[in-house]
Design brief:
By secondary structure, the protein is of the alpha/beta class. About 40% of the residues are buried. It has a domain at about 50-150: 3-Layer(aba) Sandwich (Rossmann fold), CATH 3.40.50.10090. It contains twelve helices and eleven strands. Helix 3 (about 60-70) runs parallel beside helix 5. It has helices spanning about 10-20, 35-50, 60-70, 70-75, 85-95, 110-115, 130-135, 155-160, 180, 185-190, 200-210, 225-234; strands at about 5, 25, 30-35, 55, 80-85, 100, 120-125, 140-150, 170, 195, 215. The strands form two sheets. A six-stranded mixed sheet has the order 3-8-7-4-5-6. It has a five-stranded parallel sheet with strand order 2-1-9-10-11, sandwiched between helices.
């Protein structure tokens, strides 16, 4: 049976398993994370000076580190938060946040569009590889905190080759995995392993790095990803 190997988190794989009964869904983690101490201290320092009207989370990992390391920021976020997409929103809901907004476009551009029409202040929590469009938005009202770094597990990339078989799909959920995939690029291209991405942006970067993409989701609403994959893989 053909497999879909998600290069992301177990949470993402679990959501896809509920919809994709026709295919085995496995997860293979090629990214590690580590919090950035200076950024965490900056969050604490800035909170003493101002409380944002909304807390913005660009990933589930950003939620995790704020809740684990800066409880005072988590308390503020509990009043009103913006999540980049449904997966991040789910992480907030699980932590008891009831007022969670999601932009129409589940992407960095969606966050930018939302904040451009927002009259209040915001603290934005992200990784060290945040999209430039969000960095350009920063001002006295919108403060960006890169609270964790993404660390590609380059040494694990070759292990992926023992998991995939001809005809399997690998699903890229982040462009950060490309650094690891580049080390096995020739092996991937020699095999009949098909490459899919959850966005046009990741797909374009994959083509530039690996030289190929077979399928990508071009929707703004990530809640439609499972249906898209079901239509194309089943």
């Amino acid at each position: 049976m053909m497999k879909l190997i998600v290069l992301g988190t177990e949470e993402t794989a679990q959501r896809l398993r509920k919809m994709l009964n026709c295919i085995d869904v496995e997860v293979f983690e090629l990214i590690d994370t580590a919090f950035i101490p200076e950024a965490i201290e900056r969050v604490r320092s800035c909170l003493k000076k101002m409380k944002p009207d909304i807390s913005v989370f660009t990933s589930k990992s950003a939620v995790k580190y704020i809740w684990e390391l800066v409880p005072e920021a988590a308390e503020v976020a509990g009043k009103c938060s913006l999540a980049i997409g449904p997966g991040t929103a789910e992480s907030l809901f699980k932590r008891g946040v009831k007022n969670v907004l999601i932009p129409k476009r589940n992407s960095s551009k969606g966050i930018v569009d939302f904040l451009n029409s927002f009259n209040g202040s915001a603290f934005i929590y992200s990784s060290d590889r945040v999209d430039h469009s969000i960095e350009e938005l920063c001002s006295e009202r919108f403060l960006l905190f890169k609270v964790y770094r993404l660390i590609p597990k380059v040494d694990r990339a070759r292990d992926l080759l023992s998991v995939v078989s001809d005809g399997d799909f690998i699903l890229l959920t982040s462009a950060s995995v490309l650094e690891a995939l580049l080390t096995i690029k020739d092996d991937l291209l020699r095999r009949n392993v098909r490459i899919a991405a959850i966005s046009r942006r990741i797909a374009e970067k994959t083509v530039n790095t690996i030289g190929r993409i077979d399928l990508f989701y071009d929707g703004d609403d990530m809640s439609g990803l499972s249906k898209f994959l079901s239509l194309n893989l089943c």
